[in-house]
Recover the amino acids of this structure.
């Protein structure tokens, strides 16, 4: 038995080179070792890789060394047999050992040895592997994927949720909805609760936010003025601005919408105070564009503001009071139908102060009368309640005219016919009793002039000096009488006693379009002057101490306010924009700017209680 | 500033000496873009938008429109570059305008935002656009500096020659390593099997070698040399070590080449897909603004 080996290699031109050798043994050692029977010079082959051994006549045993494998007819094994008459392929590393079928009768086993991988080694290298594209996904698929992802997540999904939200609004307002990704910026603080409810304002797609959607919540907002007059009053727009407005109008952005001023998505901030210029743009020379306006020009509180024109009662002799807006000054007189000299009452050395001192223990008066003794603030402290005769004047001014036992009879205030009746009945009762005031009793009230006078008249009547009851009535309603001293008396018809009293007005608010808060002015300190409180603070604005007539309109004028208040940019202590006293949306209450400041806790005193009753400003009948 | 590679691109018959796309026509587009930015900035400072600058004011809409049109025009370079022409609207001029007008978008888009950014689709569009611009800036500077390094590295060799060099060293290693023991040869096989292009994007960008392979084989053979001392084995090992060393040089050359190419090409994989992502986000941005007007 022998092995016939044919070593096949190829020249560079591809020609086969065959070297034949013969091994006369039953055992073939295969490996890289130069002493092997079949030497396979490749590093993939072990020094001693496998052994071929003839087993019997027709079988070739093939065994790999420990831990190595060989490939017999395509399957990797450690050991196998080849049926020699049919032949077989053994692969060791890159080499193919082809055992040729043994011819019958032949004693030799022929084996062709060929390097199988030669072709693969010569294969051309793919130069595209130098490029980055060999390891990157294509640009085009990446572009497509990102486009589809972005359009899907940021466009289609929110639009879908918008239409979903219209049908299921409750769920929409609570849960997550992807149109939040469209939110251009935080809402202002006051609208923070709407942050995640886009559809509260954005109701129609591609339609700018409409006023009606604002007014769904803001029900009490007034227009500043009639929109047409407002448009007419707006100063001449530049051509560019007009172009912009026309352009906006093409897309439904009509001028004057709420959102034109109240812009949103500008950050979680407070609404800024209205700048003065916003008002001054129109009001500096309003009349030039709106000739019939009754509003005077205003541009800056310190440098361009008309004198106050309070609403004043100029006459109330008929059924209806006549109110008129008057500019403050010498001609501004108020016909309140009450005779009340403030100077007399506030004079610290006068009779009123003297009486106050004697009544100190009962009413807590000081050395002289204080404004606050009669003027009681409204609960919010903004202004003052109307004077009430019984509680305010009645502390000193008694209407007693008779005493029955321990009971003092008083004339009924506010009912002149009743007064006449009461006096007449006193005479008819068969002569008056001696009034307590004339006795030595302790009830006598100092300064009770009318009472004393009544007593004297009573005594005269009693002494049959010709004074009759009618005359007593007349004297009460005439100069020197109890009613006449304070009231405007309408004379009685000749021979009759139908005296009347003109109604008395106590306006609580003179300036209906401007705001003034007394509570903010309880302490007054004008520049370079001492800090004032109480009476002094009142008197620093209201000239009550020198007023001898109730017809004096004791309102401070513009210059008085200007001592402290200037315009938006001023050296005076209080920079005051228009919005401090006037509200753009024209409500009767406090200007929105002050309310907002209050809500944000920036004021040192409260004006939070709004005076909603427009009647509060109207004259009150006493 | 223009790179060697770009300077070589001399279109014959131009009649004038070559100038790169950056300094095309004495920086014409740099001047135009600077003027555009300056005008936008001055207007931004002069125009008093109440209550604060934002994209929804008339000036914001203006800047937004300019920006959107610019983005679309810049994208058209992808189409334009496929048709190389000269004269007035040459591709070079177009590229120059692309670079400088693209840079001016930084100013225009930032002013358009009014510096109001947030987690929303609007800022997404802005950020994507800025990434595109940043990758573009990288690309221009890569084109300026890397071709020189690439050229120096290849040393007049072609890619195929570099690969062939490896193959021929491999053959020599095959032969020289025949006397090695099974254990030693197993490690040397690791060198033969090393793929010079192996690894992913990161390995290409950093130029790192794979673990094992030639470097490991070289280290191993050197260590073995110390152990063996002398004799035939030492001679064989020494031969193999020299060859492995040579192979390491050849491998490094290829790896550096691959790295420079990766650095030169990577930006387009950001620039192009993100450009389309930007356009998609821009579409979502514009639609959302008017949907919720």
């Amino acid at each position: 038995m022998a092995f016939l080996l044919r070593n096949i290699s190829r020249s560079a031109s591809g020609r086969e080179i065959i070297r034949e050798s013969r091994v006369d043994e039953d055992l073939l050692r295969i490996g890289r070792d130069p002493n092997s029977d079949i030497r396979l010079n490749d590093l993939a082959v072990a020094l001693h890789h496998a052994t071929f051994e003839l087993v019997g006549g027709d079988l070739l045993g093939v065994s790999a060394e420990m831990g190595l494998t060989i490939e017999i007819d395509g399957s990797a094994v450690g050991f196998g047999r080849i049926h020699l008459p049919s032949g077989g392929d053994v692969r060791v590393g890159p080499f193919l050992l082809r055992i040729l079928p043994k011819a019958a009768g032949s004693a030799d086993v022929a084996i062709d040895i060929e390097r199988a991988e030669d072709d693969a080694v010569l294969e051309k290298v793919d130069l595209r592997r130098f490029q980055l594209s060999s390891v990157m996904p294509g640009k085009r698929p990446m572009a497509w994927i990102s486009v589809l992802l972005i359009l899907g997540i940021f466009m289609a999904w929110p639009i879908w949720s918008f239409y979903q939200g219209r049908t299921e609004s409750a769920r929409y307002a609570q849960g997550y909805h992807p149109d939040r990704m469209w939110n251009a910026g935080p809402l202002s603080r006051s609208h923070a609760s709407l942050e995640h409810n886009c559809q509260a304002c954005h109701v129609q797609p591609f339609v700018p936010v409409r006023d009606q959607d604002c007014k769904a919540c803001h029900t009490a907002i007034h227009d500043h003025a009639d929109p047409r007059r407002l448009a007419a009053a707006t100063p001449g727009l530049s051509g560019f601005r007009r172009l912009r407005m026309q352009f906006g109008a093409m897309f439904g952005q009509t001028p004057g919408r709420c959102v034109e001023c109240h812009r949103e998505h500008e950050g979680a901030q407070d609404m800024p105070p209205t700048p003065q210029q916003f008002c001054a743009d129109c009001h500096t020379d309003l009349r030039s564009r709106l000739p019939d306006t009754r509003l005077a020009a205003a541009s800056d509180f310190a440098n361009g503001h008309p004198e106050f024109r309070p609403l004043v009662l100029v006459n109330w002799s008929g059924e209806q009071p006549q109110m008129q807006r008057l500019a403050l000054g010498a001609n501004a007189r108020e016909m309140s139908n009450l005779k009340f000299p403030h100077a007399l009452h506030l004079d610290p050395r006068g009779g009123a102060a003297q009486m106050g001192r004697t009544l100190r223990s009962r009413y807590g008066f000081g050395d002289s009368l204080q404004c606050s003794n009669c003027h009681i603030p409204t609960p919010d402290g903004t202004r003052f309640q109307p004077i009430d005769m019984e509680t305010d004047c009645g502390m000193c001014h008694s209407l007693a005219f008779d005493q029955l036992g321990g009971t003092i009879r008083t004339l009924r205030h506010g009912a002149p016919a009743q007064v006449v009746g009461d006096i007449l009945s006193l005479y008819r009762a068969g002569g008056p009793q001696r009034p307590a005031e004339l006795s030595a009793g302790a009830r006598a009230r100092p300064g009770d002039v009318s009472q004393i006078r009544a007593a004297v008249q009573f005594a005269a009547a009693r002494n049959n000096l010709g004074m009759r009851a009618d005359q007593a009535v007349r004297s009460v309603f005439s100069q020197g009488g109890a009613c006449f001293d304070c009231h405007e008396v309408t004379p009685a018809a000749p021979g009759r006693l139908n005296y009347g009293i003109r109604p008395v007005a106590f306006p609580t608010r003179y300036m209906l379009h401007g705001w003034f808060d007394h509570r903010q002015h309880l302490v007054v300190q004008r520049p370079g002057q001492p800090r004032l409180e109480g009476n002094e603070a009142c008197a620093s604005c209201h000239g009550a101490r020198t007023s001898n007539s109730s017809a004096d309109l004791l309102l401070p004028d513009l210059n008085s306010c200007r001592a402290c208040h200037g315009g938006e940019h001023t050296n005076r202590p209080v920079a005051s924009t228009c919005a401090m006293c006037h509200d753009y949306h024209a409500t009767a209450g406090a200007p929105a700017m002050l309310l907002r400041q209050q809500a944000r806790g920036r004021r040192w005193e409260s004006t939070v209680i709004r005076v909603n009753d427009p009647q509060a400003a109207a004259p009150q009948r006493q | 500033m223009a790179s060697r590679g770009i300077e070589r691109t001399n279109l014959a018959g131009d009649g004038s000496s070559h100038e790169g796309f950056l300094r095309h026509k004495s920086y014409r587009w740099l001047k135009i873009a600077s003027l555009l930015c300056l005008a936008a900035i001055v207007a931004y400072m002069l125009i008093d938008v109440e209550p604060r600058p934002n994209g929804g004011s008339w000036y914001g809409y203006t800047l937004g429109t300019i920006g959107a049109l610019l983005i679309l025009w810049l994208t058209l370079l992808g189409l334009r570059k496929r048709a190389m022409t000269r004269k007035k609207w040459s591709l070079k001029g177009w590229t120059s305008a692309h670079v400088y007008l693209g840079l001016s978008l930084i100013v225009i888009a930032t002013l358009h935002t009014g510096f109001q950014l947030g987690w929303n689709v609007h800022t997404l569009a802005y950020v994507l656009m800025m990434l595109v611009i940043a990758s573009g800036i990288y690309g221009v500077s890569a084109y300026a500096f890397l071709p020189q390094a690439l050229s120096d590295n290849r040393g007049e060799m072609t890619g195929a020659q570099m690969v062939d060099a490896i193959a021929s060293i491999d053959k020599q290693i095959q032969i020289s390593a025949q006397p090695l023991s099974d254990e030693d040869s197993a490690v040397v096989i690791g060198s033969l099997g090393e793929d010079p292009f192996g690894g992913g994007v990161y390995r290409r960008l950093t130029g790192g070698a794979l673990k094992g392979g030639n470097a490991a084989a070289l280290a191993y053979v050197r260590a073995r040399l110390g152990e063996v001392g002398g004799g035939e084995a030492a001679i064989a090992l020494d031969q193999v070590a020299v060859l492995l060393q040579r192979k390491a040089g050849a491998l490094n050359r290829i790896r550096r080449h691959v790295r420079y190419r990766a650095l030169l090409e990577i930006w387009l994989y950001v620039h192009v897909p993100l450009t389309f992502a930007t356009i998609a986000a821009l579409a979502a941005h514009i639609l959302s603004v008017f949907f919720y007007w």
